Amino acid sequence: MGRGISLVRMILAGLLLAGAVFALAGCSPVEGPQMMQARGDQCVEPVEVIRRDHMKLLSHEKDQAVLFGVRNPNHSIRGCVECHVSPTASRDDPSSHFCLNCHSFNAVRMDCFQCHADKPANDYHFHALNPHGPGFGFDSAANSASLARDLESIIALETQKP
Amino acid sequence: MSHDSTPDLSRRRFITGAVGAVASLTVAPGIFLMQTNAQAGTKPGARWGLLINTNVCGDCNACVTACHKENGVGSMNRPTTDAQWIRKVNITDRTTGHSRSLPVMCQHCEHPPCVDVCPTGASFRRADGIVLVNKHTCIGCRYCMMACPYKARSFVHEHLTDQVPHAPRGKGTVESCTLCVHRIDKGERTTACVEACHTEGNGAMVFGDLNDPNSEISRRLAEYGGAAIRADLGLNPGVRYQGL
């Protein structure tokens, strides 16, 4: 009698497992969210860098900006919003907001936009690679290679000083 | 977003800055410094301040309106808790009946009590003398509000939307006059209140570098002097008043 019950249990478990395998096999890869087109031709970093490490750039440079006044339009949250968010975007509708769209897709919840403006302002703060105009005190760079050269020469100049 | 474009970038390549656009300096694994432009950062040796001539300052409210517009400080129609970065204070000498009206904002002290009491280091003084709240580390305890003898700071009690990009503000943090730090960092040498005072008001305010003896503010201070409010506390504020 006890043997019969355990046999039934095993068969049931097997059926459930088989069902789960079939169900998973039927799944297609998850569709990514529809991202809105950025204003501008080129991001400040290669796409694979920005996808993986944008939070490191923002986190590091926020301290530089707040504490020391070193403001870099190329790595500012303002710069992200300026290109990637439409002026008519809404926080309540993530699909209209580039940052929120991907964050909600990836179940990431950060607090940036509790304080920071989530829409571009009228005065543009585009980064140096954006052909629509760079931020204050920055000239347009032809491409990322020339930008890197500029930065290297600036660093070389700065390190000469005591 | 396609699935086949997996990042082929190793962590080390990112950290050592071997990747294209960013020139970075490696300090230690996981820590990287990036330098941007040569003029970046606070102006060396500067100490920004304001000089307010109360003999000229009248009944107008232009500085308050301009400041709150510039920084997106709006009223919630609850005057007891509304944020206030700058306010007009009326003082009257009881014996003579002589009255004065003057704007009071964060006085950007050399020895700020708000910085002394802050438990997280969020309240800090920049190298150029501007006292700010780092809202990334502010926990909203409001000790600084109690410590400030000028009642210059406000707490944001409510969820906010539609902030101005250059002035992030949010619920649960303390805020105060930033001396229009976004303008100073852009190279401008004026603030919203000073600008409004000259265009709409009586031209009672001057902004400048207190450490530069040739600046207008220093010349005026040298010639006519300027008092600090509550000078007895020895905080050496960067905002000075004439005619008090």
Automatic annotation (TrEMBL), chain B:
Give the matching PROSITE patterns.
4FE4S_FER_1, 4FE4S_FER_2, TAT
Q: Which InterPro entries match?
A: 4Fe4S_Fe-S-bd, 4Fe4S_Fe_S_CS, DsrO-like, ET_IronSulfur_Cluster-Binding, TAT_signal
Q: Which keywords belong to this entry?
A: 4Fe-4S, Iron, Iron-sulfur, Membrane, Metal-binding, Transmembrane, Transmembrane helix
Please verify whether the record's keywords include Cell cycle.
no
Identify the residues that the record assigns to the 4Fe-4S ferredoxin-type domain, covering every copy.
48-79, 129-158
Can you name this protein?
Answer: 4Fe-4S ferredoxin iron-sulfur binding domain protein
Which species is this UniProt entry from?
A: Thioalkalivibrio sulfidiphilus (strain HL-EbGR7)
- SUPFAM superfamilies assigned to the protein according to its UniProt record, in alphabetical order: 4Fe-4S ferredoxins (SSF54862)
- Bilayer-spanning residue ranges: 14-34
Give one GO molecular function term: 4 iron, 4 sulfur cluster binding
